[in-house]
Amino acid sequence: MGTLSGQVALVTGAGVGIGQAIAIELARQGAKVAVHYASSAAGAHETVGEIERLGGSAMALEARLGVVEECRHLVDSVINHFGGIDILVNNAGVTRADKFENVTEEMFNEVFQLNMRGYFFCAQQSIKSMEERGGGSIINITSVHGEAGFTRHSVYSSTKGAIIAFTRELAIELAPKRIRVNAIGPGLIEVPRYHEIPNYTTEFGNSLIPLGRVGRPKDIAPTVAFLASDAADFITGQILYIDGGTSAKMALDWDQGDKPQ
């Protein structure tokens, strides 16, 4: 019996990377898992296949989470299929990088509609079922970009900061319903799209992290499972950075060691 046996989870953006690892780990802990995707159909069905290979129960669902009605339909489909929902992992998002002065209205809308609107309305549609089942857990995936600045990410970091504020506010508002709301802020987690960045290598990524290595999707998944479980029953409104020490490091790389007089 896993720690999440009898629970139903929805993981958005679970066809690739972090979302895929989270979905598989929740299933490994005993949850029935709805695997959402927008464009990664093959990856979503791969996730479902891996869960079924482990002896779990899963289904794949497509939705464009920048559209409110599709957020609602997605959650309702999970509830209708599995009988309810206990865990929502808001993970689906998009990254767009450009200089602040080059950001267009179209780019702004695209990033905010998915990264914030999708989180907001999937959560809103889930809470009635969670309350009926005695409570639940919402886990929002934010980023170290919500903690500190990084060039060319003005829109993306704005959404991640908004997710942090949303997490804390929602935790207080939903506490009487016994619905806990927390967020995880990944650091540099090596996913397939990183290798599309010019001149990126794993070795370069390793050199940026205080612990000496880049993160992997599997570094995030166990903490999500913990926050969803009864072991975290007294934890809500918290932001946990999983980043190998990145957010703890002062940006000034300045050796101030003693010098001989």
UniProtKB/TrEMBL annotation:
Q: Does the keyword Oxidoreductase apply?
A: yes
Which Pfam families does the record match to this protein?
A: adh_short_C2 (PF13561)
Q: Which InterPro entries match?
A: NAD(P)-bd_dom_sf (IPR036291), Sc_DH/Rdtase_CS (IPR020904), SDR_fam (IPR002347)
> Gene3D superfamilies, per this entry?
NAD(P)-binding Rossmann-like Domain (3.40.50.720)
* GO molecular function per UniProt: oxidoreductase activity
Query: What keywords are annotated for this sequence in UniProt?
Result: Oxidoreductase
Hey, which family's this protein in?
Belongs to the short-chain dehydrogenases/reductases (SDR) family.
Protein name per the record: Beta-ketoacyl-ACP reductase
Species for this entry: Dictyobacter alpinus
What is the gene called? fabG_1
